[in-house]
Amino acid sequence: MDQLKDTLGPNAKGIVFFDGLCPICHGSIYLLSRLDRNLTFLVSPLDGITAKKLGLEPMPPSSSHQTVILIGKDGERLEKAKAVVKILSELAYPAKCLSVIGVLPTWLLDAIYTLIAKYRYVFFRKKDSCDILDKHIKKRFLP
């Protein structure tokens, strides 16, 4: 827990772990970097050094790389729709308004999330590497 707090620093509320090769994830992280002006969330690839350092259990690619994982400052771990809703709820307005999707049942949101994750490479080309080049992302990126 102390290692997590040291990694986050005083202002961040959590780390968003994402699939570094997924184009939808990259787009989402880019959007997060634009909407989260207060650096509420840091970001790191699921197979990165930070994930290993914090003891995120390696899972089979069929499961771990089909989800976003949010580790909060308190150590709470949220995945899929719960993570997305929590991230949206912590952003400033007007993005915060999107967290209203949280009124839908979690099973429904997770089913939609899983469906998109399952077919993401059918519609979008898989990235060769996790190339975070945008200056807004770099300041919140953890390896």
Question: How does this structure look, described?
Answer:
The mean pLDDT is 78. The chain has helices at residues 2-8, 23-35, 49-53, 61-64, 80-90, 106-123, 135-138, and strands at 14-18, 41-45, 69-72, 77-79. The protein is α+β, with helices and mostly antiparallel strands and 143 residues long. The chain has a four-stranded mixed beta sheet. Strand 1 (14-18), helix 2 (23-35) and strand 2 (41-45) form a beta-alpha-beta unit. The chain has seven helices and four strands; from the N terminus they run αβαβααββααα. It has one domain (2-136).
Integer-rounded radius of gyration:
14 Å
Q: Please list the strands of the largest sheet in the order they lie side by side.
A: 2-1-3-4
Shape: globular
Count, helices: 7
Nearest-integer average pLDDT: 78
Order of helices and strands: HEHEHHEEHHH
Q: Per DSSP, what share of the residues sits in E-state strands of 2 or more residues?
A: 5-15%
pLDDT < 50 stretches: none
* Cα distance spanning the termini: 19 Å
Number of strands: 4
What characterizes the major β-sheet? 4 strands, mixed
Q: Structural class of the secondary elements?
A: alpha+beta
Would you summarize the structure shown here?
The chain is α+β, with helices and mostly antiparallel strands and 143 residues long.
